[in-house]
Every structure is written in structure tokens, then in C-alpha cells.
Amino acid sequence: MSSIATTIDASATGTASKSRPGRWQFWGRLMVVPYLIVFLVFVLYPVCYGLWLARHPQSYVHLVEDPIFFRSVVNTVIFLVVAINVKMVIAMILSGFFVQTRWWIKILSGIFILPWALPSIPTILSVRFMLNPEWGVINTTIFNLTGADGPNWLNDPMLGLSFSMLVHIWKSLPFWTLILVAGRMAIPAEQYEAASVDGATSWQKFKFITWPALSTLYVTSLILSMIWTLGDFNSVYLLTGGGPADLTHVLATLGIRYLRLDQVDLSMASIVVALPLILPLVYFMMKRLSK
Amino acid sequence: MSRGIRLKDVTNEAKLLLIGIPVLIWTLIPVYHMVLFAISPKDSATSGRLWPKDPTLNNFRIVFERKHFYLDHFWQQLYNSVFIAVAVAVLTLFVATTAAFAISRLRVKGGRTVMNLALFTYFIPAAFLAVPMYKTMGNYGLLNSQWALILAMVTIASPYCIWVLKQASDKLPFELDEAARMDGASPLQLFRLVYLPLMVPSLVAVGTYALLLAWNEYLYAFLLLSNDTQVTLAVALGNFLAADDSPWELLMATGLIYALPPAAIYYAFKRYMVSGLTAGAVKS
């Protein structure tokens, strides 16, 4: 019954369907409009407006003269180079651990994802309290064990930045490990079995099987992680607030600092200065993903 | 021979445990510290013990009854967080699903360009877009309105959602569309009756992603909202930092309440999330 109805329907509209593409294109255009509006109103306009705010050469002179700016650039570079490489190398090692099939590793991987699943604020503030020089659990323990006062952790710029990096790693390590686990799962097990028969060591297996299969994914992850880390505001702001004496700022928090000081042109200039670093990364990622 | 293998197995397991135990401790320390604080009485929270002498739920009672001036608007702020997260999820789903359908299934002209614009947006670090976004919302007269935050979060969430949905819908067989067209289905019917039902797993992943992104957001929330009755719970937690003598045990109790819903949602939809999110990044 329904099949008859369908054939009648099809023959009735058969002639009309030749002129359909126009109608389908019309609906296609209509359906991209919501996103295009979002893009024009909340991406294109803000970006252009921001560039316009950053047009004064004077802003850049002020920026370069600000010692905090120079310090932030150095901190950002340290953050990118150290935190990302440490994170990715550990993720690479741990991905080899998490592909092992054990019941307890399955449970552990569920727990391991917690930092990624939980919101940043409570967990970072929890770390901040642990590091409090007077009441924090770390210094209390040091005092109970040795009777001496522990260091004022976050009052030292280098330690403060290091802890920000640790918090960043704590938060994002699970995600990248998961990505690399997915990559490792795609490698056929026979390759490892064959290598074992030939008596390959685990380092040789990594060097000749795992790494060649994962290198593209690893580099992509590295670049994507750089972009995201550049925008990581929480790990620094919520832990050190940029202090002591504004010495632990990175570019992500510096722009907000200027904004709160009502120096919008400086704020925008500090972002524009970062563009030569960001745009090549963005270009690389777009080429890779838009295939 | 067999003893040799067994010995090898034992050392292998020991090696795995040697990695597993530090990983477990490293992961749980900040979380455990938070829980410890939340269930400790005010004066014993900082004693350095591994488990409080008299664990209590009193802190949660204080939070729920709003018995501290930091918590005056707790329920309102919790509601704000829920409202904003749900609104962002719904709007993002609408914007992203229509765009992905038009690009992938209707093959709209210029669809590739739209996809590239979305990808470009996805790769702007969020903290760098925050300043221009803040100024723009000021120009639009939306500052201090929750819609400013909702629209900003839709802007940030939708590019990735479009991309994931496009990847997923490219995999659906085109014969389906052709069959529907032959039957005289209109584009909207194809969308509603064929496309949406087949895309449910991806829609769940993407909707959850947007929901959690909005719920967890701190930077945009504290920039765009300032009124105590309008801010989300995330901003309220950050406000505890204003003073050195903040009630930590209350902050950690509130933080735990704030952290539980996203964690629960994440674990409930983990199946969808993991495949959706890793598919997004793994493609190389």
C-alpha cells in the first residue's frame, strides 16, 4: 500500500524534481544563516573592532616600555616550551600504559579523566589552598615533620609560574593521553607481535612501530595544545593572580589585566603582538583539519 | 620455562603498578583536598590530617541555607549557571545542526568557506577573543545581561560543534537523501525525519560539550556579568578570593556542589563524549 503511494508520489514529482536544486540551495543558504550571523556579529565585528582599537603606534611604545609586558612574553614562552613538551611526553608514555588491557587500568582511566571533567575553578583553588604558606596542607605537613616553616610557595615568581604549569598539566594531561590512546589503538597488533617474534626490545618497538604511526598525530596535538595553552587564562589567574608583583603574568592574563586597569588600547596591542605567533599555528591547523 | 614466564608476568604487573599508583595519587590530590575541606569543621580544616577528626556535612548545610554573606545569592547563582548552560546548549545545537546539515547534506554553495570561518574561530585562543568580545558587548548594550554571556558562549562553542557534526554527517550514505528526494521530501522533512534521528549520538556529544563549556566558563562570565544576582556560580566562587580570610571550607563545599553536575553529566555521556571528541582531534 505504502509502496504504491510512494511510486505515485515519485512519478508525480518526477518532473518537478529537476527544478529542485534551486529550492535545496535556498534551504541550504537559509540554514547557514544562523551561524553566519553569529560569526559576523560576535567574531568578525569584535576582531575588526579590536584591531581598530589597537591601531595607535603609541600603544606599542607604551607596551614595550612596560617591564611587565616583557616579563609576560618570557613567561609565555617558558610556559609554552616547558609545559607543553612535558605534558605531551608524559601523555605519550601514559598512553602506552592505558592501552594495556587490565581491569584495574580500565577503572584507573575512568578516574584519570577527572581533572578534565571537573571545572577549573574549584580544583585550581584547591591547589591554591594547599600552597598557602600559613595554613596550607603542604606547609602544615612540613612544619609537623621538621618543625620548620615551609617556603612561601606562590610568593616566588619562578615557583608560582612552575605551579601554574603543573596545574595546567594536571588539567589537560588526561585529554591528550586519551587522544594518543586513540591513536595507539589504531595500530594493528600484528605489527607488535611480529616484532616480538623477531626479538625487538620495547624501545625498538616504540621507535619503529609506534612513533612512525603516531608522529603526525603527535605534532598536530602539539600545535593544537600550543594554541589552547596560549589562551589558558585560568591556570595562571586562579592560582597566582599574576602575582607576586605581576611577575607571573602570561599574555592570556596580561590582556585582561590591562582591560581591568582601563587600558583597552594596551590590552588590544598585547594581543596583536601575539598574532605573529598564533596565526601560523592557526594556518597549520586549518590546513590539516579542512581536508 | 613456565616459572620464567610467570616471573616475567609478575615484574610486568609490578612495572604497571609502579606507573598506575603515582598516576592515581597525582590525579586525586587536588580533588581529595577539596573533599577533605568540604567535610571538615571550620577550625580543623587546616590541621594537615589525611582524614578529619569529626567529618561533618555542616558546611553544605551552611551553603544551602546561605548562612554567609558570600553565599547570599547561592540558589540564584546556581539557577543562573543552569539557565545559561542550558540556553547555550540549545542555541548551539540549533546553530550548529542547521549549519552542518546545510554544508554536508544540502551541499550549499560556499559551504566550505563557512566551515573554514568556523574553524578559524575555533582556533582563536579564547582569552584573546575575550577583550574584543567585552568591548563589543558594551557597544551592543548587552553588558551585565546574561544574554551577553550566552551569546559569547554560543560563539565559542558552535565552531567545534559544526565541525564534529559535519564529520559525522559526511559519513551518512547519500542514498538516503536521494531516496527521500525521490519520495518528494522537502529539505525540512529530510532534516527532521531522516537527518536528526540518525545524528542523535553526535547531537548528544555536541550538546553535552556546549553545556559543559558554558557551565565551566569563568573568564567570560566574570568579564561580562558583574551583578551579584546575575553572575554564575563560577564567578561567585572566584569572588571568594577577594579577601584573605575567606571561609575556605565553605568555598570548597560550594566548589564541590558546583563540580558535581558537570562530572556526573560527563560520566553519564562519556561513551558519546570520548568518541566525539577524540574523533575531532585524531583526524590527521
Q: How does this structure look, described?
A:
The complex is a heterodimer of chains A (291) and B (284). Chain A is 79% helix and 0% strand. Chain A contains 14 helices and no strands. Chain A has 291 residues and is mostly helical. The model of chain A is unreliable at 1-19 (pLDDT under 50). Chain A folds into two domains: 18-53, no CATH class; 66-289, Orthogonal Bundle (MetI-like fold), CATH 1.10.3720.10. Chain B has 284 residues and is mainly alpha-helical. Chain B folds into two domains: 2-64, no CATH class; 70-282, MetI-like (MetI-like fold, Orthogonal Bundle). Helices cover 74% and strands 0% of the residues of chain B. Chain B contains 13 helices and no strands. Chain B has helices at residues 2-38, 58-64, 74-104, 111-122, 126-139, 146-170, 174-182, 187-198, 200-216, 219-224, 233-239, 248-268, 270-282. The radius of gyration of chain B is 24 Å and the shape is globular. The model of chain B has no long low-confidence stretch (mean pLDDT 86). At the A-B interface, α1, α2, α4, α5 and α6 of A face α1, α3, α4, α5 and α6 of B.
